[in-house]
Amino acid sequence: MTSTHGTTASYEGYRHRHLLGIEGLTASEILFLLDLSDGYVALNRGADKKKHLLDGRTVINLFFESSTRTRTSFELAAKRLGADVINMSVAWSSIKKGETLIDTAMTLNAMHPDVLVVRHPDSGAVQLLAEKMNCAVINGGDGSHEHPTQALLDALTIRRRLGGIEGLQVAICGDIAHSRVARSNIHLLTTLGARVRLIAPPTLMPGQIDRMGVETFSDMRKGLKDCDIVMMLRLQTERMQGSYVPSTREYFHFFGLDGEKLQAAKPDALIMHPGPMNRGVEIDSELADDIHRSVIREQVEMGVAVRMACLETLNHNLHAERSRQEQAAQ
Amino acid sequence: MTVLPPKHRTAYVNARLLDPASGLDAPGGLLAEDGKITDLGADLFKDGVPEGAQRVDCGGACLAPGLVDMRVQIREPGEEHKETMVTAGRAAAAGGVTSMVGLPNTDPVIDDVAGVEFIARRAREAKGVKVYTYAAVTRNLEGSELTEMGMLAESGAVAFTDGLKPVENAQVMRRALAYAKTFGHLIVQHPEEPSLAGGAMNGGELATRLGLPGIPKLAEVMMIERDLRLVEMTGGRYHVAHVSTAESVEAIRRAKDRGLDVTCDTAPHYFALNELAVGEYRTFAKVSPPLRSEDDRLAILEGVADGTIDAIASDHSPHDQESKRLPFGLAEPGIVGLETLLPLSLQIYHWDKCGLLDLLAHLTVKPAQILGLDAGRLAKGAPADLMIFKPDLSWKIEPDNFESKSKNSPFEGLPVQGRVIRTVVDGRALFEAA
User: Fold this and answer.
1) In whole angstroms, what is the distance from residue A269 CA to residue A292 CA?
2) Residue B43 — pLDDT band, cuts 50, 70, 90?
3) Residue A100 is nearest to which of B205, B280, B322, comparing CB atoms?
4) Rg (chain A; Cα; Å)
5) Cβ–Cβ of B329/A96 closer than 8 Å?
6) Which among B387, B372, B241 is positioned nearest to B317, based on CA atoms?
7) A207 vs B214: CB contact, 8 Å cut-off?
8) Which of A83, A205, A303, B352 qualifies as a cystine partner to A200, CB 3.0-4.6 A?
9) Are the Cβ atoms of B326 and A100 closer than 8 angstroms?
10) What is the band of A239 on the pLDDT scale with cuts at 50, 70, 90?
């Protein structure tokens, strides 16, 4: 199909109304989104970054949890596509007592947004909201459940560096139990044929996660052996002092990524981190900044491209669905 | 001395009489006079029904004691928007329940004599099924100071429990068991080690996939095993509410073998469902303790069939939409159960796991015995609390048709067998199927 703005894209590759998680997506659906994202990387690097695919559309970023980078990334993605963007930050603790999540959904729904991006501290909250909305919904991270655009941007980063995902050995290290990034990445990487290892202290490893088709380790050196990718996760401050791990010092000693532990991985293994980093807690500062090994800044760059692809696709699907409904009604 | 003729007589004819207490399963009739059963048997009405008696033709349906539901949250006082004495009573009658026992976790908590008397008064005013109440083990369910158990029992509390909360402190539990023993009273425990039970669903693969904090099965059996030690030490009477895991059943089985005075119950959802019912964050399947794995479900079924699990209670937990239409972790636990207790329990009979009389015993005479209630039997002189039902009649569960004020049932649309035709309390028909 040819859009009025001259871009040629077929959206048959991803036909869902929403993007709520990676679990359940097929390899071809994931690859479709990655291919579409690829095209945006060049655009974003050029001087004129504007497309008009979402002219006249409204994107609402609804964040029940503070986030600078994800919100900014979505905002930029939507603006570069020409959409009007509203950012709403809601303190979830205050909303709990008064307005319910459903009320919030109904209120926003009445404003006729086209795409709603939601981040929420509770697992499953975005899906609950999506059930009540007439627009497309993108999960910007829900509790410890999923963060699909993060997994997509990680995959795009890997693919552009190494040419593909299939057959790679990927280690995901750190607070697996509370990480939506880990879950989305496990689904995506295993779907595309990578082998995934999880490395964490037992207190941060969720039960029966091996049933998701991964290997688990509690020793960094063993887990990192011969890995192509080392993906570090952020350790939340409130979990650092005694509740899950005894101290940041002890955590860094055994589970923080430093040059010595990294030697177990392949010599050219890439280092990734979804940010924001705790330097000296889960990752050594020098490694994080090593331009030969660390692709952390590239991940941020890919984030905008991936979100543009997702916004474009979901917006298209929504309006294709609506015009089908209108035709059916006539 | 002249004996006055009874004012109110009903002759139930053409019934299949089922009395789990005596093992009676035979065609026959039953005569109720002024709220009591005065006679029953095969040849009772062979010369016609007595003069002046109302004749109820059961049409071959089963006539059994009304169900005794030992675990119900009536929500009055305090949460009348979820359920009231009147709506819970109607739901009970529709479900064949003639006696229900309310938990003390109301607002205010039933931890003093006034609370027990309030329930009795509201139940009288509601004129529904018989309502009994537990009183709290500890004041305000705070787990530290014992309530006035002796006086509470004198005023009508049938046993003691902290409801949805376990008695966490071992010393408090020890004293509760020891003190209650003085009066022969029963302590009913919600079996969960709280420090391990902070999650939202059963710990395991599904919880991990959904990113929800899991509750390990261990949390349950750990509390039961601790309590069993205290029972052994004190000689107290102990009942474990809503058992949900295979290991718990095994622990209780061993305790009974050792001769401890221990009983337990489960709720239909623990043998009808497993954790997969949570699916994609279905809050109607959120219960406490959580739905467990398939192995556990089968062990619960086995425990009911072999009698290790003494009773089946509905664990009726009405919730309004606002308490359930929330992210899974924040939603209230519980299932509305009075109107599905019989058909869900009858599944065990239809699955050929146990006989009809044996199953009914779990719903009638056994809970009545555990709590010392004059209920759950078809016998001369017993109250005419009756349920007429057709065990094979098929229907589909439709929460919208529930009498209960709340509709939070994960069983919506489930085809079941077994339906109540008439519910009678003290000789009065409180429910008749349309």
Assistant:
1) 10
2) confident
3) B322
4) 20
5) no
6) B241
7) yes
8) A205
9) yes
10) confident
Facing B208 at nearest CB: one of A124, A180, A206: A206
Q: What is the token pair recorded at A151?
A: 């997994």
Q: From the CA of A123, how many Å to the nearest CA of chain B?
A: 6
Q: Cα(A114)–Cα(A316) distance, rounded to whole angstroms?
A: 10
Supply B381's token pair: 């002189």
Q: Which of B3-7, B76-80, B110-114, B158-162 has the lowest mean pLDDT?
A: B3-7
Q: Cα–Cα distances in Å, from A177 out to A53, A200, A206, B208, B273?
A: 39, 9, 5, 8, 26
Report pLDDT for A211: 95
Chain B residues whose beta carbon lies within 8 Å of the beta carbon of residue A123? 210-212, 281, 327-329
Answer yes or no: are the C-beta atoms of B157 and B135 closer than 8 Å: yes
Taking only the tens place, the pLDDT of each residue in A86-131 is 999 887 655 555 567 888 888 899 999 999 999 999 999 999 999 9
Cβ distance of B281 and A123 shorter than 8 Å: yes
Q: How far is B322 from B331, CA to CA, in rounded Å?
A: 9
Residue among A127, A183, A209 minimizing CB distance to B281: A127
- DSSP state string for B351-379: TTSS-HHHHHHHHTHHHHHHHT-S-S---
pTM of the model: 0.93
Residues of B in contact with A211 (CB under 8 A): 205, 208
